[in-house]
Structures are given as structure tokens and as C-alpha cells.
Amino acid sequence: MKILVTGATGFIGRYVINELKNYDCEIVATARRTENLPEHLIDNGISYIPCDISEDRTDFFNYLSKPDILIHLAWDGLPNYKGLFHYETNLPVHYNFLKKMIQGGLRHLVVAGTCFEYGMQSGCLSETLSTEPANPYGLAKDVLRKFLEQLACEHPFVFQWVRLFYMYGEGQSKTSLLSQLDKAIDNGDEVFNMSGGEQIRDYLPVEKVARIIVKISLQNKINGIVNCCSGKPVTIRKLVEDHVRNTGEKINLNLGYYPYPDYEPFAFWGDNSKLRTVS
């Protein structure tokens, strides 16, 4: 079995690649440039193919070694969720690429979605809820999914939309909450400025996210939208306090320094009932 991973050099992609190494499959990965790859991604068992998905070409499927499964993780511009480029540029580029892959012969597509598709809905969010995206990133992903669902009506293929919630781990964006916290601790700062911390979210370590993505990809009985989440609500304050405790260091939390984000609801987490049926 040949599995292609786009976005392989990104935060999630590198963990998905490592997880796939545990299975008997041929791994192919794309990167805009294959020279000077990060050292942890250099592996003789992985084929890296230079590819810019925005290129105007029709032979993507053949060029990318005719994979049996495509795990599509690529997406530019994060963690800027409000940029109009998400639907003005990214959306058409990604749809055209994926459409050409399907038309070329791909029969199993796995795409990373986002909990931002749910918009400002609060509480426990299940896959059966209607989407109401409230920022450009969530809107672009939501429309991409709907485009692909319609494409599957014309060109049948196995389609799995892994709706990602929050995650943390080594290699995450330097602007993420825990990355900034780690930097403050490493710098010996006495105080860490943050929001009030009472907002409720759903977090998983990125290693587990990668295991979930691969597990979903290697079966075809549970398809469509699948929430990738813990199903366990946690306050941001507790997440931060637990992280500090695990480091063994001490730092004072300056709660309420930053306002709460206006592009997401105050309290939401995922329903992982469907995910638990994946075997």
C-alpha cells in the first residue's frame, strides 16, 4: 500500500510520517523543496517528491507516484485564522489539486478539517451539527469539504474528513500558547501573561492526533466527518497549570492580561463517539 502525505514537513505532518513508519506501507511525501530537509525528516524509507500544488498541471496523480491513499495536511498561512487568503487563494488551490488527484485515479482521500467549521457554537460538538464558520479559515475548510462531498457524487472515492480540535507538542508554532509558555520558562521569566484562562477547549498531544489520523486512514468503514478530539473539556488555565507542573519549574500566571479571542466560542469541545468506533 502506498500512502502520500502532503504537508509532511509541517507540525502534524512530521508526526504522521513517524506514525506511518509503524505500518507495512510505502510512504511518499511532498515538499516544495526536497533539498535541505529538516534532519528529523531524512529517512531512506521515505520518498520525497518536490511539488507545488498550485502548479497548473493535470498529471499530479501520476507525478506523485499513484498513491493508494492521500493524507492531505497541507495548508498555508496558519495560525492566522482571519486572513482572507484562506478562501481567496487556498480554497481554489486545494480544491483544484484534490480534484485532479481524484480525476487522475485516487480512490481514498483523507483531509484535515478544523473545529472552526462549527463556528460560534458552544458545548459538546458532534459531527451531525450544521457548520456555521465564523472566520475565513473555518469557512474555507468548510467549503472545501462540501466541494469534495459533491465531487464524490460524480467520482466515487473513500472520503474521510478528520476534523481537528486543539493540540500541543514539540515543533508547534512559536506563537501557540504552550510554545510561548515554554519560552517564558526557558528565559527565566517570573510572570507569564495570558487571558483569564476560564475558556474551555479540547486538547490532544500531537502524537495522539497523528495516531488517530493514521488509524482513520487505514480503514474504510468509518468515513465522512470524524472529530479528532479527546471528548474531555479542559480550561485553558488548567492546561497551562498542568504544563508548568510537568516542567518542574515555577512561573506566576498573570491571568486576564489578554482579552478572550473573539473568533471562537467561550466553551466548546468535541464529541468523540464516532472516533471511538474506528478500529
Automatic annotation (TrEMBL):
One Pfam family here: Epimerase
Designated name of the protein: dTDP-6-deoxy-L-talose 4-dehydrogenase (NAD+)
Family from the record: Belongs to the NAD(P)-dependent epimerase/dehydratase family.
Species per Swiss-Prot/TrEMBL record: Desulfoluna spongiiphila
Gene3D superfamilies, sorted: NAD(P)-binding Rossmann-like Domain
PANTHER family: DTDP-D-GLUCOSE 4,6-DEHYDRATASE-RELATED
Domain NAD-dependent epimerase/dehydratase: from-to ranges: 3-228
